[in-house]
Amino acid sequence: MKATALDPDTLTPGARRVLDSASELFYERGITAVGVDLIAQHSGVTKRTLYNRFGSKETLVATYLLARDRRWRAHVADALDTPGPSPGERVTVPFRALREWMRGNPRGCAFINALAELPDPEHPGHQVAADQQQWLLELFTSLAADAGLRNPDD
């Protein structure tokens, strides 16, 4: 069976603790540098519990990225929902949202980092990160179109 991300919103409290620990470790140290032993130790669970909740490190990585993606998209949506900017100004709103977001994220973009660490397109984490990048491209294209730019796809 191919690994896929779990829905982060439906995790048990124990699985949430594992995900929170893994998220911190993956972002701070890198995905490939962090093993399940360290995640289990950091989250206060056994490796067996980790595997019972997630099945594999690949599923845990994909779930980490999916949870982060949901938070990032909500952050951008909140920024775009603020009244005032003209359609032309809205094109830059994601950049302002990114500046705020990066205050708490000193290692740069988790999705670009993940794509660099997970080059196999079949890895479920790679797929989540690639989907996030595609979403961002589509968002900019849509904002550019709304602003009346002649070639928004460019």
Tag the structure with descriptive keywords.
154 residues, mainly alpha, 0% strand
Describe this structure in a few short sentences.
This protein is an all-alpha fold and 154 residues long. 66% of the residues lie in helices and 0% in strands.
Describe it for me?
There is one protein chain. The chain is mainly alpha-helical and 154 residues long. Helix content is 66%, strand content 0%. It is built from eight helices and no strands. The protein has helices at 13-29, 36-43, 47-54, 57-80, 87-90, 93-102, 110-117, 124-146.
Summarize the helices and strands and which ones pair or pack:
Blueprint: H1 13-29, H2 36-43, H3 47-54, H4 57-80, H5 87-90, H6 93-102, H7 110-117, H8 124-146
